[in-house]
Amino acid sequence: MGLLRLRGASAAAGVVLVVGLILHAALLCNGGITSTFVRKAEKTVDMPLDSDVFRVPPGYNAPQQVHITQGDHEGKGVIISWVTQDEPGSSAVLYWSENSKHKYLAKGEVVTYKFYNYTSGYIHHCTIKNLKFDTKYYYEIGIGKTVRQFWFRTPPKVGPDVPYTFGLIGDLGQSFDSNRTLTHYESNPRRGQTVLFVGDLSYADNYPFHDNVRWDTWGRFVERSAAYQPWIWTAGNHELDFAPEIGETVPFKPYIHRYHVPYRASQSTAPFWYSIKRASAYIIVLASYSAYGKYTPQYKWLEQELPKVNRSETPWLIVLMHSPWYNSYNYHYMEGETMRVMYEPWFVKYKVDVVFAGHVHAYERSERVSNIAYNIVNGKCIPAKDQSAPVYITIGDGGNLEGLATNMTEPQPKYSAYREASFGHAIFDIKNRTHAYYSWHRNQDGYAVEADSMWFFNRFWNPEDETKAAS
Ligand SMILES: [Fe+2]
Fold first, then answer.
1. Which residues are catalytic?
2. Which GO MF term does the entry hold, naming one (predicted)?
3. 203 alpha carbon – ligand 1 mean position (Å)
4. What is the pTM of this model?
5. Which domains are delineated in the chain?
6. Contact predicate 389/353, CB 8 Å
7. What is the pLDDT of residues 140-157, one digit of tens each?
């Protein structure tokens, strides 16, 4: 009898234990999707210096490393940049709109810099302004020596229902995988019109003495896209090039000489944080590697910037930064945390639609969550669903030589909606003031596969919960 009772008790305890374990598993494992796609493990290596994508254009002093970015706040200006190697040559740009006989000449400037034992070529920057919206322009550079011609299309006039398609690329580098990412972006039928680049460009700093020749090769590699459509730049940690061991103590020296941005047009005081309007989007670029604490220039700027965003004019509010705030990979753990603590309440208050970051070399999309309720004593320090919060997307999967981030925290946290350790790029395709279609395109199948996607319902114009709107 006693034995039976004991057996009964232990069986009951066993049932409780099993039920407990199931409940425990259910509680812990209710995160989103961890992709079952497993990328073939192979080393990521840089393309050799004699690769065709790094070829120097023929001709004496021919302009190379040509790239453009937005040159004002509204989208009527373009900054055109390039490098000449043999002599300074002309910094002027000759440009004209399609179907126009009148050609314009804009004067630019030329800069150089030294980095340890490297001396740069002649880096030219020329801003052309007051362009017509939604117009194809041709431009010529290298005037007087070897002339090269390119073209771009200006965005439509800023307005709430203007469709526009942004590409997202991050942590690109110059490996064979980087080349695949760029090719997939270029051939994507969704046709990105402007690249939002979330930082870490060339990875030159991974070479001995931060070999700046790799800044030049990177410039030539991306020219095939960046000379024809604007790339909107964000500074990452690989732009710091801070190397006191070789006497290089000015942070961002190569980056700020090579990549100009229109920061003054948004009353910013440094090129690392700024904003632009483009079509129906308002894009705020933040600096993970510049001071962002209270009273700092970036803090004061952002505090004044967010209330300026008129969602009736630009319904889509996009933020770019390098170090992610929500990241469930075992890489760069907590690196974005202090900035999150400073700025997340503002992102919720102003209903930022989406935050794109890089840094972690993989892909991840979050639920709409916030983690702003904690006040030291209340214990509320877990991300909670919040329809006013942005979606956080990590797109640091361009394919640089450091390889993929494959190690994830387990179980997948609730806030993580989808994650996958593959290289790729994304497209944010704005349809009108209420709808945007977002898709992430994995590289590893020979062509870009849409591996993750989401409809965005603008919460300013469509305050209904996204989940309800989707059903
Ligand atoms: Fe990074």
1. 332
2. acid phosphatase activity
3. 9
4. 0.92
5. 159-199+272-468 (3.60.21.10)
6. no
7. 999 999 999 999 999 999
